[in-house]
Recover the amino acids of this structure.
């Protein structure tokens, strides 16, 4: 079953079960998918849909930071619930230890030695972890290892 079909089935079941948060989250994802399909005049692949979901997850993470600054605990909880729903559609997320292993292997591959090589390391690591972790975590791990 394609990811688009799974989203549609989950939308239908969330409407039947009156699960408002899940329904709204899936509608948001489907709207982003539809927008990209209209813009590019093509049907998106599962990989492209995963990119959209990853991007929305990243937006949710930054929104949580803003809500915390504004002391909006209600919005923080809602956004965290939405993030959990989005994570169900992404591949299993990597732990920091797993990211560290990938980064160390990549550093050996490209013979990076200092902070000047951070761009090369990031460029090599990101395709390996695409959709399975956040770029900020990768950046933190790379900086820690190269220092």
């Amino acid at each position: 079953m394609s990811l688009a079909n799974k989203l549609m089935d989950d939308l239908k079941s969330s409407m039947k079960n009156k699960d408002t948060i899940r329904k709204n989250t899936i509608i948001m994802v489907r709207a982003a998918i539809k927008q990209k399909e209209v813009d590019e005049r093509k049907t998106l692949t599962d990989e492209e849909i995963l990119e959209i979901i990853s991007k929305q997850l990243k937006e949710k993470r930054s929104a949580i930071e803003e809500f915390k600054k504004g002391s909006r605990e209600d919005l923080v909880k809602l956004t965290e619930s939405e993030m959990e729903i989005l994570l169900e559609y992404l591949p299993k997320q990597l732990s920091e230890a797993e990211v560290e292993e990938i980064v160390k292997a990549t550093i050996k591959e490209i013979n990076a030695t200092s902070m000047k090589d951070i761009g090369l390391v990031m460029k090599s690591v990101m395709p390996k972890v695409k959709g399975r972790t956040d770029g900020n975590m990768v950046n933190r791990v790379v900086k820690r290892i190269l220092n």
Notes: The chain has two domains: 3-87, 96-146.
